[in-house]
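Need a sequence for this fold. Nothing fancy.
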């Protein structure tokens, strides 16, 4: 039985990301970013002219300032997904209690303030030209994503078959939201509410991104179970992963191992490309100085890493490519996982029902 996949808008989520964009346009902070797509630019101009609703500004001030960033964008997003969805409140509380215990005593205060601020913010933009533009873009994007469903379902079916994970998601409902037009920090994310999982993507037609978030549904619980039993493995995961990955996900072993299992599966194993220096060169084979400079401009993370190594043109990148790879991209954990997948695939030839969870526990326990 295939997991149920739905394409629909999450109003609380969309409102909150729009509020993020307005807040950080009007009150800049030294973290995050605002993507300059056409709709985001129009939204920025709208809020520069009209200001931000005071209720939601107070709520975001409360989260970002009063809690000294302990409540971040991802946590606020979790709360926003409970907007008009009271059935998610218990799952939300369990998540907060486990992952953000310092704010658990304030849960109801934050929950109620979030819903109240979203109501106020929604009223502040009602019947505006911006609201109409967002609604039009959302409807168009939902139709676009629905057209991708056959291909997505085919990919997901193949993934579940490879991992023998059909049973783990058979009762799960996956809600894929329209493109997030106002990404502040994260390009994508998956949010768990029991058997309901919301997948957010900030790229309109990127099936790999949606596939990545889908795989978290069963990879992340397996990883958390594995690491809870093996504290030495937690240290090894952090030591073996790349600096680039740690910069993105922090030194949190469960995040790093989950992400590495998924990244290596999609970006390396499925296309039979080892995470090596030679393949790094193939993926970053710039044909001209202009192409290199355009890539720098479009990829801020890559640009920052180049700046730290005093790479400012194609010639210096080519000269320092090995240094760049060893410093940021070399990922021993990914190399181990690549071989793990090869061994798992070979073992399945004689044992088609082999469970990935059992194999993973046995393979990684001594790394």
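Here you go.
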């Amino acid at each position: 039985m295939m997991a149920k996949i739905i394409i629909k808008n999450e109003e609380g989520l969309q409102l909150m990301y729009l509020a993020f964009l307005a807040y950080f346009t009007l009150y800049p902070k030294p973290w995050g970013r605002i993507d300059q797509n056409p709709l985001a630019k129009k939204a920025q101009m709208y809020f520069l002219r009209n200001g931000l609703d005071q209720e939601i500004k107070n709520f975001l001030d409360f989260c970002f300032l009063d809690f000294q960033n302990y409540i971040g964008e991802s946590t606020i997003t979790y709360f926003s997904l409970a907007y008009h969805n009271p059935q998610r409140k218990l799952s939300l509380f369990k998540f907060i209690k486990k992952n953000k215990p310092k704010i658990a005593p304030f849960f109801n205060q934050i929950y109620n303030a979030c819903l109240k601020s979203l109501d106020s913010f929604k009223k502040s933009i009602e019947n505006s030209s911006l609201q109409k533009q967002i609604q039009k873009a959302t409807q168009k994007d939902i139709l676009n994503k629905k057209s991708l469903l056959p291909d997505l379902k085919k990919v997901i079916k193949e993934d579940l078959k490879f991992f023998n994970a059909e049973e783990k998601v058979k009762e799960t409902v996956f809600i894929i939201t329209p493109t997030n037009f106002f990404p502040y920090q994260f390009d994508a994310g998956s949010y768990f509410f029991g058997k309901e999982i919301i997948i957010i993507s900030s790229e309109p037609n990127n099936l790999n991104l949606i596939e990545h978030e889908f795989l978290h549904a069963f990879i992340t619980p397996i990883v958390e179970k594995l690491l809870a039993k093996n504290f030495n493995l937690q240290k090894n995961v952090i030591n073996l992963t790349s600096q680039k990955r740690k910069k993105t996900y922090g030194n949190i072993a469960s995040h790093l191992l989950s992400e590495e299992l998924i990244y290596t599966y999609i970006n390396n194993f499925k296309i039979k490309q080892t995470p090596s220096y030679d393949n790094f060169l193939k993926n970053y084979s710039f044909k001209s100085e202009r192409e290199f400079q355009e890539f720098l401009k479009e990829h801020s993370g890559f640009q920052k890493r180049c700046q730290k190594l005093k790479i400012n043109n194609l010639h210096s990148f080519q000269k320092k490519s090995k240094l760049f790879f060893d410093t940021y991209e070399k990922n021993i954990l990914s190399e181990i996982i690549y071989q793990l997948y090869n061994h798992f695939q070979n073992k399945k030839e004689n044992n088609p029902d082999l469970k990935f969870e059992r194999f993973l526990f046995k393979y990684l326990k001594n790394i």
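For context: Residues 38 and 175 are 26 Å apart (CA to CA).
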